[in-house]
Amino acid sequence: MNTQRLPLPAVLCTVLAALLFFIASPGMAAPKPMVLKPFKELSKESAECAACHRDKNPSIYAQWGRSKHYGANVGCYECHQADPSDPDAIKHEGQSIAVIVSPKDCATCHESEVDQFAKSHHAKAGQIIGSLDNFLAEVVEGALTLNGESPAAVNGCWQCHGSVVKVMDNGDLDPATWPNTGIGRLNPDGSVGACTACHQRHEFSMVQARRPEACGKCHLGPDHPQKEIYEESKHGINFYANVDRMNLDSAKWIVGEDYDAAPTCATCHMSATREQAVTHDVGDRISWTLRPAISEKIDAKAKAQGKQIKSWQERRKDMAEVCQSCHTKSMVDNFYQQFDSLVNLYNDKFASPGKTLMDTLKKEKMLTDIGFDEEIEWTWFYLWHHEGRRARHGAAMQAPDYVQWHGMFEVAERFYVEMVPQYLETVEKAEHAGNTEGAARARKVLEEILNRPEHAWFSGNEPEEVKKARKEAQDAFKARYLNDAK
């Protein structure tokens, strides 16, 4: 079979090209179209690639054959071609190619998508290499046994966040850094990111990218269980119950027009609405950052640095518009009041006090400079990095069990039953070692925190009228329950 295809009829070319554009509905600001350069026929170089890979890698060939790239005569060479001077360029069957197709390569046709991605938090995911998480994977959990890297980081953190892809002296890609489809991958050509983190090669299916499983490769587990949270929520329940009505292969896929059963991750964070275009900046509609120990509005860090970015109010307005495709404005407004109240509760009652306690121990030189060598450091990390994130994300995505039992309950247990006793133990140890003045200051910090109204129950200083009102409410509930049961 000859893989060199005859030129497509002009009409068919036009139809195929049209499928690559998002069609604007009446009253909607037309989304900027996804641009893919169609060719009249498959190039000679790509035809040669396909002829070989059809036999050697039949699945790759089949996936490409189902893709829009195939329909537009975009083949292997158009994506993998490289300049001989590129750091990762290799000679292959007489052609100069690169194994890695980077966002810089994709931008040849998809310029706006790559520009949007470059502004997103996804593009910064590779910065984990300097974080506490990576320290755990490289040092605490691992050892530098794979070409100077830790297998725990190589197979774990970096597969989501991205590796620094290194080219060895012989031109091969370092197996400690490749294969890797981490969303913030640092590529040999200087670009950042991996489009294939979401758009699985070589089909690059819209249906696959729009399903929650596409995000679930990275957004699940004890510290960021967004996929599990989504599945618990009414949104997730509705999606799986009505997936056959989601119209996932629609070219424009506008919520409220092309589907109404449920939103997916893509719906809320990326996809077109009646008023908004598709965006590849996944934070464009997010108003809080729920990742750090203490949550802040998404633009707070930039504003502190004197940078002008899209405000959290504008982002929330855009997300609310997505919500209002299915819900009334009053319902959306009330949801945001509930969500904000949970984030503020977590911040004020546990996160800010917890950070104050840890900062005090460091200031008073009661902790070593080594991370995670003392029990209270693990306790604090669990509190904000695991339980605190679960509670906040649960509230953001309407998963009550993650707010309560996997979230705030465990935050409270971690704070009162572990962190406070460990703090006092650390202070007492320092006092016995001669740091009496520092111990007095540290105890005063804890005393001030526990004397706040929200901790009064624990310190035993809760006002009698508060206890009385709670008992009356409990008695009224019991009486109502008993009467209903008769």
From TrEMBL:
SUPFAM superfamilies assigned to the protein according to its UniProt record, in alphabetical order: Multiheme cytochromes (SSF48695)
InterPro entries cross-referenced by the UniProt entry: Cyt_c-552/4 (IPR023155), Multihaem_cyt_sf (IPR036280), Multiheme_Cytochr_ET (IPR051829)
UniProt KW keywords: Signal
GO MF annotation list: oxidoreductase activity
Pfam families the record matches: Cytochrome_C554, Multi-haem_cyto
Signal peptide region: 1-29
Residue stretches making up the Cytochrome c-552/4 domain: 106-166
Record Gene3D superfamilies: Hydroxylamine Oxidoreductase, Chain A, domain 1 (1.10.780.10), Hydroxylamine Oxidoreductase, Chain A, domain 2 (1.20.850.10)
Record protein name field: Hydroxylamine oxidoreductase
